[in-house]
Input
Amino acid sequence: MKLKSIVSLTLLALVMLACKKDKAETEVIKDEPVAFNYNVEQFADIKVLRYQIPGWENLTLKEQKLVYYLTQAGLAGRDISWDQNYRHNLKIRKALESVYTNYQGDKTVANWANFETYLKRVWFSNGIHHHYSNDKIKPEFSSDYLTQLLKETNTTLEGEAFDVIFNDKDAKKVNLTKDVDNVFLSAVNFYGPDVTTAEVEAFYKKKTSPNPKKPLSFGLNSQLVKDNGVLKERVYKSGGLYGSAIDQIITWLEKAQSVAENKAQGDALGLLIQYYKTGDLQTWDDYNVTWTAATEGNIDYINSFIEVYNDPLGYTGSYETIVQIKDFDMSEKMAVLSENAQWFEDNSPLMDAHKKESVVGVTYKVVNVAGEAGDASPSTPIGVNLPNANWIRAAVGSKSVSLGNIINAYNNAGSTGRLKEFVHDEEELKLEEEFGQKADKLHTALHEVIGHASGQLNPGVGETKETLKKYASTLEEGRADLVGLYYLYNPKLQELGLVDDWKSVGKAAYDGYIRNGLMTQLIRLKLGDDVEEAHMVNRQWVSAWAFEKGLKDNVIEKVTRDGKTYFNINDYEKLHALFGELLRETQRIKSEGDYKAVEDLVEGYGVKVDPAIHAEVLERNKQFTSAPYSGFVNPVLVPDTNDAGEITGVKVIQPGTFSGQMLNYSRDYNFLPEVN
Output
């Protein structure tokens, strides 16, 4: 599971310039902490940032080579995520990039500026659907203008791939609307365009695992399509679907295995290679068990088809990679959470039957990202907890990481003033300014380390993707959020030495969560839209439920002042109790597989938006120019070699532009055909 950044009220993005040379130009920026420029570019609703790799120079040559090979492996599969997101994405991207690099006409007109912005938005979202809302991105230029650009650059884009840019077909990448066929109406390319929800559910219902106590992740690495009316899986593997890119991934992973830091790490890489070669789901589980137990070393990674947020039914994993370098100082400080995981489990408000008697193998590290690709880039999580299989978490444990340099880049990229606009009073402002960043970091840690590792399913209850279906992801993210919220307002954090003033940190966390869940995250939505993204939905249903249940005791007060709405917490103790009550209920829902209860919770509190509040928030937000979404360009790792071709060192170069990096990626990691 991954935690997306909500960094107070702002989020961030990425950028780069186009070039007519064979190589897109790269601006080298000196890595001086004081002068480092985190901001790259802003366009539409997106802000693009850079991040540094602290401690790179302290790595050994072997470690630098390992990081380099792992980042290359990740980038080799980049186009997989584009094709997974939509069947025409690669064809559209290649055509738009051809126009962008070859057009010699007038670039001072508004149409060209709109074309450039559209392409950057498509780059950022890894496709033509918005990375967060899932809505198809609408171009602010006409089909006639695009036809002109294509003609003048000798570029071909025809038929449905051209038409879909401008029409209403395939309008949502992931459609989670209630009482519709979610698979049929989702444009994501995990299923053939004529496959229905009922057919998918019936197909996987027939699948049985050799060991029911260790259920395989059916559908995780395959596309389900119809062949002469019969459903069949196209497995992601060497020689299978995406095989040409997967072969490149394997090549780089084999290089990485040759410089592994230790046997456990090397064994895990060997199993991952075998999984890519065979597509065998038992090998995937064997890999995850081995990878989870491989906790020694300075370098770690996430690589494969993992998170299922983009699947309306939660079966198929999106391709993603993150390469990580351990932050020794912060990891040592925060390891106290994993060391005390059993205490948190024992003292949670969960029903006794839903608590784990023995929380095993929970490791927590603060890491510095060295490279990301696929679903993790340009829009990146700030924390990750894996593996996702419940039985592996229970039997072996999990790895939790907080992406320290990503969070640091967010915090140093500048503020927008939105905070002062939406806080209720000076006390709330002071709490956020003094304790907000600490509260955010701790919530991320508690969410990932304690939240996702907590609780257990009742005997005989199936995996949540089967019992809770399309609500599984938002329920799990909300449950983990609630674990964090429950313990953020607890003296145990001060006892463990994690904070100096637990009450102030807890109050800042509660203020920020309610403010965001009920108001400020609405800046991301167009007026009239429902909330649909899993994390946004969970933040709203948690906040709205707590607000409603606390009305009797005026726990959270809705205040109107000078025509503006604020939400003020009057009783933090009672809000803490409400969070505990909701946590207990969400775990019960998950443990029992109670579909009706999760449907009532999510649809009743998490999806619909108060139109008056939404209109007000959008109006109040107009004064701020900073974009609501953000992401990153990745540092470029450049190896130095001797006459024999051996790597003697690896330099870190910061890209200067978003478009330059995107064009470089398309040129250097172009391993898939336009149609797969």
